[in-house]
Write a structure and sequence with these properties.
Shape: globular
Number of helices: 2
Structural class: mainly alpha
Radius of gyration: 12 Å
Number of strands: 0
Strand content: under 5%
Largest sheet: none
Length: 52
Amino acid sequence: MDALASNMGHCLWTGIVDAGRAPAVAERLLSPEMFSGWGVRTLATSLPRTTR
């Protein structure tokens, strides 16, 4: 996996995620590393931070 980002939520919303994988995608979106309590994070907390 290169990155864990909120884009998968857009894929889920548009219906392009395979029905067999949709529950896993939804579960990941609501996991502690992706869901802050206020909403879905843009990037997972497990990704390294970089500054430029």
